[in-house]
Amino acid sequence: MLTGYISSSSGQVLIDGTDILEDPIKAKKNIGYLPEIPPLYVDMTVHEYLNFMYDLKKCKQPRKAHINDICSLCKISDVENRIIKNLSKGYRQRVGLAQALIGNPPVLILDEPTVGLDPKQIIEIRTLIKKLGKSHTVILSSHILSEIQAVCDRIIIINKGVLSADGTADSISQSLTNKHRMTARISGADKNTISDALKAIEGVKYVRADMEREKGIYDYDIESEHDTDIRPQLNKLCAEKGWNILMLQLSELTLEDIFLKITMGEGIVIPKEEEKPQPEDNNNGGEK
Fold this sequence. Notes:
- With 288 residues, this protein is of the alpha+beta class.
- The protein is built from ten helices and eleven strands.
């Protein structure tokens, strides 16, 4: 709907103030779109295809310089004269991204841009997307949550048509994470002795010795009372007993955990972060 390929049944989509349905030509001049399957004419060379897209979009920039800049940015200059059907999937994805950049649109919409790529190609495309995000608004749609966490400054999760989360990865995680639960890996005594000592700390509600991580060394899941930070007492206890804290971390949720909590019927809706004032033409972000 953002690109105008599908009409909306209700609501309104504005691209830089222009309604996508009322004036689609003007609105689409501000959009570069890369579908999940790049729209390539595989019998053309890369150079022929980009020139064709330049004419199709009726670009005003100097043709040769503009196309050369895009090829350099997408790192496809070395295959510019090769036929597209002979390129690897990674290079085809780069060519698809290059066509989206023709005309230098302020908004880029990328749908599953790394699907089917090998690990090296995925890293290269992610790096390119982050670089483009410095000068364009990039809306990235993906179900690969590690990709979203690695690339996006702003994350939106939509569940059954309802906006359920909107913010940075950290802010969304913190809003659902129980800050009073932590995991500690402690050595220096048997698990029962350590568990009993942890339970005796003021403010501790619950302690469970998890599986043995190393020989004789366990992880301990600890839950404390609300608004109680037991870390100072925990450090003091271990120092007095001569025990070693090998690891201590809050039980933070991953983006995958959050996505599952929201979409598996738990009825969770995370309030939107307060936005800082920004220029009207700059809305950096990523989606889902």
